Every structure is written in C-alpha cells, then in structure tokens.
Amino acid sequence: MAGEWASTRSANTNPGVGGEKTKVDSRSLTLTAVFAALYVVINVLQMISVGNPTVYGPIQLRVADCLIALVALFGWPALGGVTLGCFLTNAYANLGYQDIILGPIANLIAASVILLLHRHQFIACVAGALPIGFVVGAYLPAFFPPPETLNALPTIAAMIVSITISSLITIAGIGYLLLTMLSRPSIMKPLKSHGLKTVDDA
Has residue 99 been placed in a domain? Predict the structure, then answer.
C-alpha cells in the first residue's frame, strides 16, 4: 500500500514546477534583457549618429520608444525591458533625479496601457504615447526650454505638446508598423517554434 501511494504521488507531481516553469521564467528574463539592451543600444546609436538633443532634449524623438509598442505582442517581458532600458539610458545621461525616476515610470505606464489594450493594437499605441508626453513633458522644462515654435503656449504645456508629438511618431507610427510586421504569422510561427511566447499565449 505504501508503495502504491508513493507511486501515485510521484505520478501526480507536476514536473513543470521544477523544470518547465524554470525554462519559461528563463525565457521571459532573457526577453526582458534583450528589450532593455535594445533600448539602450538604439539610444546610444541615435546619440552618436544624430545627436544628443534628439534623445534627451525638448524635441525628444527617441526611436527606441518604438519598442514600447511591442508590449502588445510580447507582454510583460517587453514591459520590463523598456522600463529597465529607459532607467539605464536616463541614468547614463544623469540629467537629474526627475529624469532617472520619472522617465522609466512614464515608460512603465505607457507599456501598461498598451498591454491592457493589446487586442486593439493601433488604439493601444496611440493611448500608450500619451503618458510619456504628459509625464516627461511635465518635468523636462526643469532642464530645457520648450521648442521655439511652441512659445505661444505656457512652458509646461508647450513641452507636453512637443513630447507627445514625438511619442506619437515613435510609438503610434514607427512602433505600430513594427508591431504589425512582427505580428504576421510568417514571422511569429518560426519564433514560436523556438519557444517564444506572445501575450496571448500566456
């Protein structure tokens, strides 16, 4: 009887608790690291090729923010990656504690909005761009004046408009196009065959 009970208990043990779950968690952490690294590398390349003001200035057209749109496809790992990547990028520039703390928070909120609305990809990308415009635009006047073309507006309002437009271009424009391309079955099927999971697989 004791032997049968032990055998039954062994058969009912979920092998995923110690094995498969670890593999899944490892893949998620790896994907988070990939997104964080891509975010930092794209910003560094942009600084080198175009110039620092486009990454940290009042016309903050961060091409790397297109990765935030991919949260609609890759879920929590991408969300963590673009948040961590923003923290590392802003810490490198070291404009001030506002940028180091509030910048990643803006990315976190934007990515969370996109994750929440991921079934409506374009709407998600547009809505996700707005928190970055409001949060970053609200504190950036502490470091830079707004663009001269928006001088008719109050300082904070002008900066919010500038950053919101930039975010719409990178997230709802470039990001949405990238998201649409990667969502194609011809691209996702080979990736999924290697164990990559999307937000709908979770």
Answer: yes
Residue 108, domain extent: 15-201
Residue 6, domain member (yes or no): no
Query: In whole angstroms, how far apart are CA 39 and each of 57, 148, 154?
Result: 17, 29, 31
* Lowest-pLDDT choice from 6-20, 84-98, 105-119: 6-20
Return the residue matching tokens 């909120």.
109
- CATH code at 192? 1.10.1760
- Can you state the angle between helices 121-139 and 97-116, rounded to 10 degrees? 160
What number is the average pLDDT over the span 69-87?
97
CA distances from 133 to 136, 161, 167, 180, 201 (A): 6, 7, 7, 23, 31
Domains contained in the chain, number: 1
In-domain check, residue 7? no
pLDDT band at 25 (very low <50, low <70, confident <90, very high): confident
